[in-house]
Amino acid sequence: MRRLTVALLLAALGALLLSVGAADAKPRVKLKRVGRFQSPTYVTSAPGVPGAVVVERGGRIRLLQGRKRRTFTNIAGLVSTGGERGLLSAAFSPDYASSRLLYVYFTDHSGDLEIAELRADPDGLHANPATLRPLLIVPHPGQSNHNGGQLQFGPDGLLYAGTGDGGGAGDQPDNAQNPNSRLGKLLQIDPGSGAVRTYSIGLRNPFRFSFDLVSDPGAPRLVIADVGQDRFDELDYLPLAAAAGANFGWNDFEGFAPYPGAHPPTPSGTVRPIKVFGLSGAKCALIGGFVVRDAKLRSLLHRYVYGDFCTGKIRSLIPRLGGARKDRSTGLRVRDLSSFGETADGRLYATSLDGPVYRLAPRRR
Q: Do the Cβ atoms of 303 and 223 come closer than 8 Å?
């Protein structure tokens, strides 16, 4: 009897170790190509409209429904695309089903950052470019890089936008630390009134950010992937409420390291990243993603998915307020990875500037 008990305990322990090993093994996920587009930069969806919305750098937005695609709108005549410029993202109002309003983030022909409103037709399947109404223009003179580019509605129903520091190297004008500049900031916008609030400062190029509604449903969290200068990219993660007035440290800090030549010194109390990525080898720019909520992606569920533009390698980690845990490879790679996107049903997408758009799907045994 004793031997049987020991055998059962050993079997149970072995099963436990196998389950832990399986949880830490390479995720069972694959890239499913859903179409080819012209330099896609983002994927989202419109509330109440089936399918995915694909944003193209040149100024066109496409609606993808199964194998059928249509042009949702085209503002190419307003968009400049030199350097890192272009149409960089779009966000649909949470009440889109009734308001038919959406918002776009692009660089105009002056190189400035423009956030504008569009109104779609009653069927919600097309928006006339003539309905475009500028909501905010942030001067971005001289340099074609560090434009930020993310628009996202927060859980509070307000619109958030991440802006770059103005480009060049080192933020010589000190835009990110200047409270009177809207460069190098996370902005909060009330589309109804047009009111704009500087929500956070001290960012270099927050090309992509997202809201984590999974880890603590009662207190939404903000995830910012901030592209660094020469040494480090960083991932910032904190409760959304705590981000109001937060200073992420650029250009006094790059990652955890002091940045030489910064002026004047940043006040104490800057937010420390939960993870820093050394820019070694072929890595060049952190592409931020989302905390996965698609139950079909079991091996990635509740993990933050991200990648690098130059290597194209896609990885995931567990975000925590005290620091990231269990960073690991997904085994996936997208050449010229330009963005991740998420639709209302939680499906996760990855885009390549080369043209393909992929959906992350479970890989069957």
A: no
Identify the DSSP state of 204.
Answer: S
Residues whose CB falls within 8 Å of the CB of residue 336, separated by 6 or more in sequence, listed in order: 309, 312, 352, 353, 354
In three-state secondary structure terms, 327 is strand
Amino acid, single-letter form, for residue 170 = G
Bridge partners (DSSP) of residue 33 are 358
State residue 280 phi and psi, 5-degree precision: -105, 165
Q: What CATH number did the domain enclosing 41 receive?
A: 2.120.10.30
| Strand extents, DSSP E, 38-100 | 40-44, 52-56, 60-65, 68-74, 87-92
Domain annotation covers residue 119: yes
Regions in the chain scoring below 50 on pLDDT: 1-24
- Report the candidate in 160, 154, 240, 148 with the shortest Cα–Cα distance to residue 197: 160
Q: Does residue 128 have a cis peptide bond before it, meaning omega lies within 30 degrees of 0?
A: no
Closest C-alpha among 206, 213, 268, 266 to residue 240: 213
Is the dihedral angle over the CA atoms 346, 225, 89, 356 positive or is it negative?
negative
What's the pTM value of the predicted model, to 2 decimals?
0.91
Structural contact between residues 272 and 256, judged by C-beta atoms closer than 8 angstroms:
yes
Domain count across the chain: 1
In whole angstroms, what is the distance from residue 251 CA to residue 262 CA?
A: 6
Residue 236 forms beta bridges with which residues? Answer: 224
Q: Report how far residue 318's alpha carbon sits from residue 326's, in angstroms, rounded to the nearest whole number.
A: 6
Distance CA 89, CA 274 (A): 25
- Separation of alpha carbons 60 and 328, rounded Å: 35
**The tokens 């269990």 sit on which residue?**
326
pLDDT digits (tens, 9 = 90+) for 253-294: 999 999 986 665 565 689 999 999 999 888 999 999 999 999
Asked if residue 21 belongs to a domain, the reply is: no
Q: What are phi and psi of 272, to 5 degrees?
A: -90, 140
Does 100 fall in a domain? yes
Tokens 């750098």 correspond to what residue?
Answer: 57
**Residue 168 falls in which region: left (phi positive, over 0), alpha (psi -120 to 50) or beta:** left
- Structural domain of 343: 31-362
Residue (of 133, 34, 124, 135) closest to 72 by Cα position = 124
Specify if 1 maps to a domain.
no
